[in-house]
Amino acid sequence: MTLQMVGITKSYSGFRVLRGVDLSVAPGEVHALLGPNGAGKSTLIKCIAGAINPEAGSIHLDDAPVEDLTPTRAFELGIAVIHQHLSLVDVLSVADNLFLGHELRRGPVINRRGQRRIARELLDQFGIDVPLDAKVGTLPIGTKQLLEIAKAWHRTDVKVMVLDEPTASLSESETQRLFAEVARMKQRGARIIYTTHRLGEVFRIADKVTVLRDGLVTLQEQVATLEPQRLVAAISGGTAEAARARTATAGDVVLDVDQLAGPRFGPVSLQARRGEILGLYGVLGSGRTSLLETVSGRFRPTAGRATVNGARMAMTSPARVQRAGVALVPSDRQRQALWGTRSASDNLLLPSFGRLAAGLLRRPRRERGLFQRTAAALDLQPPDARRAGGAFSGGNQQKLVLGRWLARIDELSVLLLDEPTQGVDVGARRKIYDVCRELTERGVAVVFASTDADEVAALADRALVIDGGRIIAELTDDQITEKSLLDHAHQFTGVTA
Amino acid sequence: MTTTTSTTTSAAPASAPAVGVKRDPIAVALRSALLIGLVALTVFFTVQNNLFLTAGNLKNIALSGAVLLVVAVPQALLVIMGVVDLSVGSVIGLSGVVTGLLIVDHGVAWQVAVLIGIALGALAGLGNGLLVSFTRLSPIIVTLGTLQLYRGISQFLRSNPPANFGKGMNLLGRGLYLGIPVPVWIAVVVFVIGAVVLYATPSGRYVYAIGVNKEAAFLSGVATRALPLVAYAATGAAAGIGGVLLAAQLDSAPPGTLGVGFELNVLTAVLLGGVAFSGGRGTMFGVLLGVAFLGVLNNGMTLMNVPYYAQAMATGAALIIGAGLDELSQHSQLIRAIGRRR
Predict the structure, then answer these.
(1) A204 and chain B in contact, CB less than 8 A
(2) Fewer beta carbons under 10 A from the terminal one: N or C of chain B?
(3) What is the pLDDT of residues A263-307, one digit of tens each?
(4) Cβ separation A361–B200 shorter than 8 A
(5) CA-angle at B310, arms to B309 and B312, nearest 5°
(6) Cβ B66 vs Cβ B187: under 8 Å
(7) B210: left (phi over 0), alpha (psi -120 to 50) or beta
């Protein structure tokens, strides 16, 4: 009575991405599937979902062989896959989304009342507190994710639930709610396959873990007997991450934000110093993205001011703000940062083309030189200037976005990063951290926002906790621990007994 | 093929078989479909009609294609950026009529009248650009509106066509320089400028960046309003040049008909040339091929006395087939998969 995959093998253009992978998940088991980007996780999930057929190997569900799987067939069998990119329609209501394509009918018309009744029950069951008529586009991503799960849950008798990076953009409280839901599905005997880049979650929720690397299983073990260091080693293929050394030798104030207010945040005052990494920790919807995007010129502030190196900064457009020496690495790579069909060179050098040009004309040799230097500094893999941006792994896409500003380091005073390692594998994450430190050593102030307390604890020299659009706590040096961040964000402190 | 991967170590090797779309022969064949079609068409017409491959007829093709290319080059920049100018036909009319009436009614020197005509075109284009960049209106709505508006203005300015522009205009429209018609020279210059802008200036990169992901371009500091604005003005100026050239060729500028329907010919050439209507993709060479293909197709069919309705059908079919092949070339992996299954 399990989901059993044996010897799954798959190649793309002669390149083997899965090389005889075995995986079995028993009912009521949460199985974490881990590995760096490009390890074959997505391919394996596509095999389960029927999106692709493996060349060799077999899949059994409840001892019955599953052959020639298609997405529709998989769904009928009770295999539900919740993707990172959700399949909800933003302009439709919650109720309409839940029934899209499978509407309840009464004769030729949609049975709206029936739909609303079932939808209500479903939302209550999953603890999703939204009006049925709310447009999905207006909801936070965590809620959308739960909706997606609810949608799958009511449409089929879920035997296998695959969650692909479900917590990538969830806040801590949303993650907790998701985990409660996973625990419930588990009790009802679902087999749950779960991918994540946040290793801490494995110990919170998973029963068993499989690590893929280069298409091979490098670790398969019960979580109960697993030590974190070994897990990290299996994923990174090397030794575990060294303990961080805080080198807080902060200098003058570079960025001074004074009583700034904007969409969904403020007033906020903060200062970033030369040579320091300032972390903003806050749950999703806490206003940290709005704050960073406003400082970067994306939105106009409604009040307050900001100075850079003592000079007042006009926050009217990203171009203006960049001329003042402030740049942003936005949180939503696909939508806000990447040109998927354009070359790596275009992706990396776009803000530099004007500076590299002689008069009106581009200088290809200088462009190639800058690309190679920056790609080497970032360890871009592969370091191919002509490869399309979208063809890189998530981690390397992020390097391209980060590299845009690394390439302009001479003009850079402040680098803002929003969720700098979202959907990024362990190796690339370490590289991004290294680059942030290098930037500070070269006199840049780095300000990053993260919903991941782990990340803030690992990277920040100083941390601000944001909630409700305001700064509610400041932590320095040894105070910056995962626990203290979580405590402050959920306001477990300050409550006097 | 697979044995080489067994030695793969933890660091992804730089020589890993990149799934390079560029080297995919199916994609290359599909992308070259227009060129192959153009060659095939030329061979076909040459065999069918001995008047086709003559110096005089080639000059006709070049002359008819010249004005189309002049307008298609900046239009392609707009379409790559994800916007479009549907008003070019009426801008051609407006510029041609104003140039004509300045010469005929007001005795203005033809050189001055031509410059005013082109400047007026640029102004008309600037109007489109301002409306598109600084309102939330769709470029299709804006330029469909100005298509009517600018046509109305030409007809308001003069009800009957100004004509007989004199020697200077005749030279501009039909004169030869080094044996090649002047409009063709102008088209060559415009094409070279367009190619240089797209490939050799930073702005060319911004054009693609805006077309592929405007939000990312904006956040990266690209002038996502100013650049389309400039391109609209350039398209208007190019349509102004086109209007002057057409008026010069006809030696007349009929306000009701000069340039009517031209916007659709331009768009057909641009899209046939592989520029994606959704933006983000296209080449100047493709646009040149698109213009050449349309020119050869129409000229050849006219020589063979193919009735107009059949020419229209052939042009329409060519556009749909061309766009279809181009779409397929973006999914060559899919074609391979289908091929394997058989």
Answers:
(1) no
(2) C
(3) 878 799 999 999 899 999 886 667 888 899 999 999 999 999 999
(4) yes
(5) 65
(6) yes
(7) alpha
